[in-house]
Amino acid sequence: MQARTIIGAAFVALVAHELRPCSSLSSVMRISRHIMARSSPSIGSRASRSLSDNIHGVHSSRRGFLTRRGGNRAPPRRTGPVFSASELSSYDVDTDEGAEQSLAQSPVNDDAKSSIYLNGNTIDASTPEGRANLLSELNLHLSTTVASLSEHRTVSSTDVFCNRELRMDNIRAVGFDMDYTLAQYQQPAFDQLAFDGAKEKLATLGYPDEVLDFVYDHTFWVRGLIIDTQRGNFLKIDRHKYVRVAYHGFNAISSGMRKEIYSRTFNKQPSFTEKTFVNMDTLFKFVDAHLFALLIEMKDNGDSEFLDFKTYDEIYRDIRRCVDLCHRDGVIKDEVARDPSKYLVLDDGMMKMLNGFRESGTKCFLLTNSFWEYTQTAMNYLYHGKKVDDETLRRNEWLELFDLVVVGSCKPAYLTDPYLSLFRVDPGDGSLRNTDGLFEIEALGENGAAKFLSMGKTFQGGNWNHLQAMLNIQAGEEILYVGDHLYADVLRSKRQLGWRSCFIMPELPDEMRTFSMQRDLREAIMELRKLRDELSQYGDGLKRYINTGEFEQKGEMQKKLDLIAEDDWKIKTKLAELNREYHSSFNPHWGQMFVAGYQDSRFGYFVKNYACLYTSKATNLGLPLPSRVFRTSGELLPHDAMLYSRTTNFLDDEECL
Asked: Which candidate, 104, 108, 103, 101, places its Cα nearest to that of 540?
């Protein structure tokens, strides 16, 4: 009975398409196989065979029906959490119909183009033999090395991914941030230092003692969120600044309320750049966010008279001051210096990478907001692989890895303010001395930069003019800067100075692992969206016939339109269900980090537009050849993405009439 029900639902969708040749029949087959296999393996097998028989019986004579080449993958077992909310709010389909009816900008299936039609021949380019035939057809004669390439390309979380083509042999200097770039931290141990320290400082400001009992949970949060400090809300928005997911403290905000607050009460689209909106662009912000959410909950529950007289914005400002003070007064740094192995992650690839760059003639520099004392502690541990004694600490042997070191840089101001002063740091005792910066370099005459650095290559403060002068580099595009802060490291260096950028994402391996596990579910979702788009186009055709007045059976056509609307709602409901499951497998509250709904999240949009490269850790840059050319995977607008599929038929204007 269950199998017949599933077959019937899919078959109704097929019959609805009978009057118009389209590509969605194969889509329905794949969707039904996927859903039936998830329901019951035995039912799925019987139902799939029966559905296949029905399809071939009804549509065997249809012209223009193209099937997508390539084998089917068995859906993996999914263990991710499923949303329990009954409302279609957070991960409902796009609200504006124009966006909803557009397909994703990438092909649904990698197998869509495995077969190529060239010079009258069909070539399966997915196999080594097919690749050889393709090269022969193109009269392209390559070495035997090509034949040794694997049939399946391996993608790893240690790969470096490219948004903008970059030739490493054109890069004269590579710069690195330290925190969460060269120095990765153990989580949640490192965050716990700031969390506990901030709790104690809040208590001294008059906050209730219950704050000391707060428990930190970094898994609730993802990067790319926006904190609305005025309302006590946390937002995830898409590239068009539409709020897709919203929480007030730890409580989800309904779809209607979310739209009422952030869409319908504005005369213009909100920019989310006002001072009351804070971007969670760095992992350091997780502590702020969790403390804020806990205090919001306490305030809303009326558990503290003290909080009754505080606005949400005032609470957040208190949190920010307390957390910032923890980074300055030794609460964090002293503890890391006492036991660095508990908080810092060793990476054997760091020295290999830095030495590799310098051996290839590329300069290396360190540019960090951390001050000298903490930088010295962290870098000595990473260099020696252990905590060192005071004498070894003062030798600072790690400095040999860099041509230039700048601490206390005060990014992003370092990248935008040309008037910041440069100080020289004495590595022995951390004392500072004034410099005349650019004037001093110019006064030293020929090779002034080299002479200036010969007096010491460790500095505090300054600005990008000093750095480029000391490196003797004029063009910003000859510098690659590697950092984890999307705004201070990537966006500003790229937009203001034209530096090339590499964004570091420690979360990337988990995102990639989940995406790979959920690949079949995502394919089913995209095929359902494609099917919905086909229905809409078919309905448009029926409306045109009705409007011409040439159809005698207008009543019958209107019934078909009503059926299409009913099917559209069913698909929309199923899409919302599957999309919730898909996104919740990444994070049960916020979903996939790079995606909001079916669009790029704002975080994903900024990564795509401002990070030339991105990868999971800085040392991955040491794996490719020094002369490596990083190439983009190519971008398609929706019309090209639709035509890319072998299951799409192209009609010229006159054929559509």
From this structure: 101
